[in-house]
Amino acid sequence: MVLFGLFAKYDVNAMPKGSEDAVPMASKYPMFQDTHVMIFIGFGFLMTFLKRYGFSAVSVNLLLACFTIEWGLIVRGLLSHEFAQDGKFSIGLDQLLTADFAAAVILISMGAMLGKLSPVQYLIMALIETPVAIFVEHHVVHTFHVNDVGGSIVVHAFGAYFGLACSKAFASSGQREHENEGSVYHSDIYAMIGAIFLWVFWPSFNAAVAEPADARQRAVCNTFLSLVACTITTFLFSQATDHHKKFDMVHIANSTLAGGVTIGTTANVVLHPLHALIVGVVAGAVSVIGYKYITPLLSSKLGAHDTCGVNNLHGMPGVLAGIFSAIFVLAYDPAAYGSSLNVIYPAMKSADNAEGFILRLKIFNQVREKEMYADGDYFETPADYDFTTRVRTFGQFQSLQVVSVADYF
Amino acid sequence: MVLFGLFAKYDVNAMPKGSEDAVPMASKYPMFQDTHVMIFIGFGFLMTFLKRYGFSAVSVNLLLACFTIEWGLIVRGLLSHEFAQDGKFSIGLDQLLTADFAAAVILISMGAMLGKLSPVQYLIMALIETPVAIFVEHHVVHTFHVNDVGGSIVVHAFGAYFGLACSKAFASSGQREHENEGSVYHSDIYAMIGAIFLWVFWPSFNAAVAEPADARQRAVCNTFLSLVACTITTFLFSQATDHHKKFDMVHIANSTLAGGVTIGTTANVVLHPLHALIVGVVAGAVSVIGYKYITPLLSSKLGAHDTCGVNNLHGMPGVLAGIFSAIFVLAYDPAAYGSSLNVIYPAMKSADNAEGFILRLKIFNQVREKEMYADGDYFETPADYDFTTRVRTFGQFQSLQVVSVADYF
Amino acid sequence: MVLFGLFAKYDVNAMPKGSEDAVPMASKYPMFQDTHVMIFIGFGFLMTFLKRYGFSAVSVNLLLACFTIEWGLIVRGLLSHEFAQDGKFSIGLDQLLTADFAAAVILISMGAMLGKLSPVQYLIMALIETPVAIFVEHHVVHTFHVNDVGGSIVVHAFGAYFGLACSKAFASSGQREHENEGSVYHSDIYAMIGAIFLWVFWPSFNAAVAEPADARQRAVCNTFLSLVACTITTFLFSQATDHHKKFDMVHIANSTLAGGVTIGTTANVVLHPLHALIVGVVAGAVSVIGYKYITPLLSSKLGAHDTCGVNNLHGMPGVLAGIFSAIFVLAYDPAAYGSSLNVIYPAMKSADNAEGFILRLKIFNQVREKEMYADGDYFETPADYDFTTRVRTFGQFQSLQVVSVADYF
What we know:
Chains A, B, C: Residues 26-336 form the Ammonium transporter AmtB-like domain. Chain A is mostly helical.
């Protein structure tokens, strides 16, 4: 916290260099607000699915997004041409929108680490990851001329694999099959609040920086159709892969959104509605299969535990977005896109491992293993917290009571 | 599900005929997004009031809306002039908005059947109802020249009475007074999330297709004033009709919205604020009286059980909208509106009964009577599900414990 | 209720004097809708934090907002130049937006009185407070030429201190340390739904009436930066002031918003990003300190019990907004702002004390002391209400069981 206090001060001191931008904002503001709802309501509530980690999910999401928005504004401002020339950088609606995107990267990484870090550790992660993400994005966009309008590669895939690399570096046996890692009936419904707001506003996310207006409308329509197809596919695959042929709320809250990620890179590219639907179908199928088979493997074989399954919602769909981008681009301009995939992975891998070890330094207070995936160590909780959030079937409940009664007599 | 898989494939194959529309979208997008929030957040959470059916309400709402949007796009596209001429149809923001309206029809019918159908049966209902709805709408708008800007007749009244007809055809004694049909304290608060989002964005729903801009503003103001008057009336009537003079959350979550339905048909017509307020007052009164006295009668006398009370929120207010439309129109253009009411009912009645019997075919897996209004048969549920969602007073709880302790000794 | 019925009729009769305004609405509608979400979702859910008062919080919020919107439209209309000249007043989008602001005043006062009044008493409060608020606002804006774009003084500070004065006049010893005054785990998460929607849309609230477009963008950017800085500060101070060094959800749901209030008065004034950040930091610090130390003092020493802590979220930050306004204005136009602070307090104090005594008249049904902060007296509640909403630790639960078992043998 002291460390963070210092950086927060630095933020404030760095700011006076900026000055307000006076461009009219009529057309951009609604999409900016939609993106804003996604960051704070969408991500925040999507992560409340853990039964004992609801306060942390929504609050740390808020704290981390705020911190990253400030920090991203500064890093990006200090690297801008404007700063190099004038020693000042501007802050306007465009910069705030970009800062929201930067926050999304960190929140995705937070998803992989959900329940395993203390608030200070999350902030340190954001402190390190934000400049790396901006560096990678610059590399992808300017060196390789990749068109990535919805940020599927530079936001989703990067955020997911950075988070997974952290998770691997930070792995411990106690993280797996922890009794706190699960939902209760009502916490799954909270998560759906986040999921559906993400679903509804995803077209704005993919269209927000698209230019000109007709590309913006294409981005909206393609994202919409991809999400629709992805959702139907998710229900089909969720039922098909389940032992009891029932739907799984984890898939419904997460995989239904994969269509938005996968169409992201190419949402503004001219393409047929059929293509958007195909992208959505593939995204939904890959995401459900990921949750069902790949996440357990990643955890047991590679030691990369993934609390929210960000690999399935952001990682693989982001990579798919790159592949689809390569496929679509063959039709009219292969040269500009060819190497879009290769750039991501080396850039990420090197940064990640160092990162994990910094977080493990004993200087920062670690989460006690018993209190992983739980609010109790960091939030004041009401008196019912233990009672309401522990898994409790009739059977468990009765045996507990019986013991206490037996003790009494 | 196999059946649905085939149709989903057909959807995808039907799509390549479409091509993207390039009209700018600055002015329409915010209202489109508001409508979108209503369909997915509003309807989805409004139906979570059942204590053991929250997963299904929000998830099946999502699935059914997605399916209907695709299916509605295809049906409407195949019937368009453009398709008749070119063999192709366009998909743009206007078409997506119309598809959202088509989804609303199905979701209203779903409200009457809530808890009584399996997911596949809901999809079959949507498959049959969507073309019928489009046919009726075409008839109402083009043959009878009815002005129905907010869709009160073709969306709300049609959806409600189609659902009720299904419910009658599908009736069984076990549907009534089922132990799962009720709320718990927190599920009523979930429902209010949906209700208030519907309330807040209803002006956009009624104004979205109004032209020109001044009619759009009238539609917003009239809907707003009608909702305000309706809400106050609902509180008054809810208290007045209750035995203990308390408010009933069912009325507050539903009847407060009836003002939006009833003003829908005439929201864009020039009228005084007073008229909008009167419409709202009548809508609220009729809706509360409907919940209190008519819904039980429909169920016991006519055998049409109505889980969400769609007759009171969509059916009767939709009919009222037609009546008000006829009243208002007498002032300046009687010829165009006169027969607006007569057209709805014959068109519906014939389609409905066939429908119900198709759903009853034993081919499709029926909902087990014990598991009506419950998630357990179709969703994987957390371990606390049985414990949290059964009605439990202190008394019930103690007697349960005592029995188990007695067994133990 | 009879009294209210009479006034509701009067509302309806007063309305026909109005006529619709035909100005285009493209640019203003999105911000109007954002404000609307804040009033109904934001305030409504923020107040659901009490464990046994969720129905009332969200429903009475809805009723009171509707009543105030109608009543505010009439009062403001009857006082308008237009009415004085023509005997009619206009209702358009601008008037509805202003009415939303008027509702905010009443809802803030409701926050101070949350759980202590019956629905009729809240309506009487709104009936009296609305004309007073409009009178004070007129005085502040026109007599003293105060620039208060986000309404920090005339909405937030006035609403908070009116509510506190009511609370003092209405004080009784039973209000303090009442067993119903507290949250359960899930009710705190409900409150976060409201808090985050307020947070996300606050820039629209402060910018909605700002003119011209560049001032609107400045208002958005300044509010955004102030909120970000305020949020980070809130987390720091919440942890620093806690005995166990944990975060307190009351601070996180409320103090994070104080930055929006404090920047409100000056959001459209030209200033550096640094200044917005400083405003946010001061606001967050003052608000957390208020919750921690000043609210208990107000209650015990002055007898002004403040259920939601509106003094900390609206009162002191609103006063701070005036102070910052005075500081900022020294740079370029001291004359117009000098007396902005002095005007609020005398105008409020005189009106408040009479008010409290009217509410205490035994004519209106009072809230029974045992049922303060609880829904049971005014809402039909599901069977689990008592079980779910009483604080229940394992210990309490076991002792209850043991007693009952002991009784049984």
